[in-house]
Structures are given as C-alpha cells and as structure tokens.
TrEMBL record, chains A, B:
Gene3D superfamilies: Dihydroxyacetone kinase, domain 1, Dihydroxyacetone kinase, domain 2. This is Dihydroxyacetone kinase subunit DhaK. InterPro entries: DhaK_dom (IPR004006), Dihydroxyacetone_Kinase (IPR050861). It comes from the Bacteria. GO terms for molecular function: glycerone kinase activity. One of its GO terms (cellular component) is cytosol. Residues 7-329 form the DhaK domain. One of its GO terms (biological process) is glycerol catabolic process. Keywords: Kinase, Transferase.
Length: 330, 330
C-alpha cells in the first residue's frame, strides 16, 4: 500500500489537522473536532447550510465549507456516516436564528443520523429542513428514484442552496432551491480501479485489469455492468447516454457539467472524457453553460470518473454564478 | 493500463480539445493548435507572460492561463518540450506591445526551444526576457543551482510575474519580480509509484512497493535516495528538512506553502502531509502566510507529492494576493 499515512486508524484526525491548517482563512473546527465550520458562520438572520458524510471523498464534504457555501460540515470516518451528534453540532454551529437546511446524500447511516440530529436540534429550538441527494442514476431505476444514492450532484445542491441562503431566502425557499437543484442533476460513475482503506490494507472490491465497471458507486457499490475497458470516447458516450436518457431534457436547456476524477485518474484524461461529453450533450440540442473538470468528489485513490449533468433554469443559473470562497474553484 | 484514452498517440490533442471546451470562458486556442491563449490576451501595453512545457503535468502549464495570469502557453507532447515554433507563437499571442517575459522550467529541450523562439520573436520586433525556474533542490547541489530543474515553484513564479505585469510593470520589472519569486522557492518531490505514458504502455521507471524515492523528478528522474516507505510525518519532516536546509531563511520570514499531489495521491493524504509540514515550518520560526494543497502540478498518475516553500517579502506578498481567474484556485 503506497500511501502517505501515519496511524491507519487516525487517517481522518490527521487529515482534519492538515486541512484546517491549510484553510484557516476560511474555516475552523468546532468544539466537536468532527465538525468543520465556515469562519464567518453563523451568519445572523441567514439560513444555515449544513452537510456531512463519510471521509475519503475529499474535497467532498468539508472542502465545500466557506463563504456563500456550506456553513458547517459533519465529518465521518472513512466511507462512514458522521454521528448524529456531529450532525447536531454542525446544525448548531450553522444556526443564525433563521433555521438550518441539511443537504446530504441518500445513504442509510446519513439518513438515520440526520433524522436523529434534526430531533435534537428541534429541542434546541432550531428549525431544520432537509434535502436528500439522489443523483446517482445507476443506483436504482427511475421508478424508484427515492432509493438512488447521492454523489457529485451534491456539489450543485450545496451551491444552489447556499446561494439562495446568501440571498436571504427563507428556510422553505432555500430548501426548495436545493431540492430543485438535485432534482435536476443526474450522475454516473465509471470505475477502472478500486481503492483501499488504509486500516484494511487491501481493496474492498475488485476491478479486473482490462475491464471497467459502469455505474459504480462511490464506495465500490456494484454498477450496472462490468465490461471490457473501452476507448475514452466510447466510455464518455455511454456515460452521457445513461445520464441524459434518464433526464429527458427539452432542446435548448442549459446545463452545467461536472466531470470529476475519483482520486487517481490524471486530470488530462478527465479532459479527454470531457471532449466527447460536451459533444454528446450538444448533439442532444442542449447547451453547456459551464463546465467543471477535476477532482471535485473522490473516493480515495479509486481510478475512474463521474459525470454530473445539472439542468439549469432562470432561478438556478444566477445562483450557480454567485461568487463563493471555499477550498476549490467553483 | 487502466486509463481513459482514445488513440494513445493523440493524448495531447484530445486533452486540449476537452480542455478548451471546459474553459472557453477564460481561454482559447491560437492558430497554432499547440498554443493556449488567455481570452483577453494580448492586453495592449501590458507585458505579456508566456510559459510552456511538456504535457502530463496538468493543470501544470496550460491550466494557469487566464486573467491576471499567463497570457499564452506553449503545449508540448507528454513529458516533452513544446517546439520552438510553439514558444514563438505563444510569444506572439501574448505580445501587447510592451514585450514578453517567458517563465519556464530548466530542461534541455525547453532551454533550447525558448532560445530559438526568442530569436524568432526578435525578428518580429518583440522584446523577450526570460526567467528559468530551478526550484527542485534535489536535482543538483546548491553550488550548482543553475543545473537544478524547475518544478511546482513555477506556479509562484508565474503568479508573481503575472501580477507584476498586471500592475503595469515594465519588461525588466516583471522579469525581476518573477526571478525573485523563483529564487525564493525551494521544492522537493517524493515518489511512491511510477507513471505510464499511454503510448508506451508500461512505466518508464520503477518504484518498488514498500519503498519511496526521495527527491524524485517530475518525469521519474532519480532522486537522492530510495528508502523504505515511512510514516507520513517522517516523510514530511524529511521534505521540510531538505527544502529548508537549502534555503536558510531568517526567523519570522513569511512563506507560502504548496503541497501538490503528483496525480494519483488522494487529497486527504496531502492534508496529512501538510499537518506535519506546517508544524515543521513553524518550528523553524517561519510563518505560514498561505497554503495550497491539491493537484497543482502533476505527472500523469504518479503516486507521490511535492512540497514547495516560497519565502515572501513586502513586494511579493501583495502580488501573491492579487485575484486571478484561471482553471484552478490560486
């Protein structure tokens, strides 16, 4: 295992220490060491924005804390939900008196812990609304969308929800904007190589050399098919077909495109995928308004990429354009 | 080879196509398809800023094109210098009538091609000044600094030179600022795993599992030693010692720190390194003014990290703070 770790059981602690040192200009750690808080949070009178999730997806979750972005983030162990207490502490740290919207991904642990945290926050007198991301097309059929997992589309949900809060939206307005954002996101992942939790020391799942897994989840959850590794343009066409067939957008719709690496894929290959992705999207009569390419939502050193297509409208487009200050270019 | 490629011989072409599609809001391709130009370049009366280098280091080189950053970038094949013609075309694209500074790395091919391009530009009546980056401490002893290679410190050289040009500096002033920046940078790389050029199909060099190579170059150039893989904090201490011993900065000096992944190292592990790095720097009586952690200068899917420490002064600090718009957060 060729990795930079100290004690494999303390990867998250060590990560957080180095993370906060790097970004102390925009964020800090709460009294609970597993809660990251934007430096200016809570903002009095503004709806607070919270998320949380397992570690190992960096900059996923905590890296999106910042000005005009997430107010507080609950940090879990590698690939595990944060505790209910951490979600609760994040909600309290984000609360500026106008309530808090918790925007998180559809995983069993997160669902359970957010529910408990919401109850605890209610006892503190904090109104909490939630939106559950379910943008991962391959994790369940369209008819069972409520079962789908949340993946990189969460970034758009966070950005739109946060922007609406910055603009003075009420709890219900912020919740509605974030819900609209995630409802208009579709994502898919393709895996070319697995990842290893340092404390385990060997991959939790396998992807045989010469093959790829289409529709793979962020923790190696099985995709819809394993097939021989194809040329990048064929992979990109498959990704677009799966995502766009699920969405059925009217011609002329403007979209934001996010091509994220899973951790160990070179940036130039994400651009190679993007070449075909943008062509395919354009062929469908859609208009690419903005593109993000890079390691935006990863899975340790997994080899692979995800595509997220976010259909914009006159409400969400200006919200997407709002300037933010977090740890990554948005 | 688990990679997203089409024709392995056309990796750079395909990368550029997807790159320009993603970032057409800030850059474009020149008539020469191997030259990337900032959308607003050339800026009349401003000194133009040019660089160039081999591909495979993304976002290295072309990703730093943009507003208040590089005006034009010559793009080479994977791990190979751009042609003299491409450097020449980049210089012409960047020229706003006040001359052009070419800020590049100390590699044989780049040295030769920039020299030829400078001569060609002189025939066009364009004044060209150059600064050659040599921040890689392990590539030659201090007494032979002129032989050292340029690595991630180039990013600071570009930012400082570009900022000085934005502020209206003359050709000589911009050259001097960029020279000061790179003179005050020291970098080191540690390799944990090699990388593979897609057209070759197997790694060009080896790093045996269980070992690491200290002082490795961006193309697998041998480091100063191969040793058993250590804990992250030991690796970080070694990196700091090598970099800071070479620099001998007075106590109280403010520094910018860049911890870059080499392509396949998870972001959380860069933060783990940063935890110890910032502690070590602080122990020396230095003050960390700003930290950058991420894949800023890579080598395809190489596993490893680089550390760059940039000593600031009253001239360079405000230049580092100037807002820019390129493809990565700076």
């Amino acid at each position: 295992m060729q990795r930079f770790v100290n004690n494999p059981d303390l990867v998250v602690e060590d990560t957080l220490k180095g993370f906060v040192k790097a970004h102390s200009d925009i964020l800090r750690i709460a009294e609970n060491p597993r809660v990251v808080v934007a430096k200016n949070a809570p903002v009095k009178g503004k709806v607070g924005i919270v998320t949380g999730g397992g570690s190992g997806h960096e900059p996923g979750f905590m890296g999106y804390t910042g000005k005009n972005m997430l107010d507080a983030v609950a940090v879990g162990e590698l690939f595990s939900s944060p505790t209910a207490k951490s979600f609760h502490d994040a909600i309290r740290a984000a609360d500026g008196g106008a309530g808090v919207v918790c925007l998180y991904g559809n995983y069993a642990g997160d669902n359970m812990n957010v529910k408990m945290a919401t109850k605890l926050a209610a006892k503190d007198g904090i109104d909490v609304a939630t939106v559950v991301a379910n943008d991962d097309v391959c994790s369940a059929p369209f008819s069972e969308r409520e079962k789908r997992r949340g993946v990189a589309g969460e970034i758009f949900m966070w950005k739109i929800g946060s922007a609406r809060a910055t603009q003075g939206g009420t709890l219900q307005e912020v919740q509605a904007a974030a819900q609209k954002a995630i409802d208009n996101c579709r994502s898919i992942g393709v895996g070319l190589g697995p990842c290893t939790l340092p404390a385990v020391g060997h991959p939790n799942f396998q992807i045989e050399p010469g093959t790829m897994e289409v529709g793979i989840g962020h923790h190696g959850e099985p995709g819809v098919r394993v097939e021989p590794l194809k040329r990048a343009e064929e992979v990109a066409k498959d990704m677009c077909k799966i995502v766009l067939d699920d969405h059925d957008l009217p011609e002329g719709t403007e979209v934001a495109v996010l091509v994220s690496g899973l951790g160990a894929t070179p940036l130039n290959e994400l651009y190679i995928l993007n070449d075909t992705i943008e062509s395919e999207i354009t062929k469908r009569g859609l208009v690419v308004y903005k593109t993000y390419v890079g390691n935006y939502f990863t899975s340790l050193e997994m080899v692979g990429a995800t595509l997220t297509v976010f259909a914009l409208d006159t409400e969400t487009k200006p919200l997407l354009d709002l300037d933010v200050a977090c740890t990554i270019l948005l």
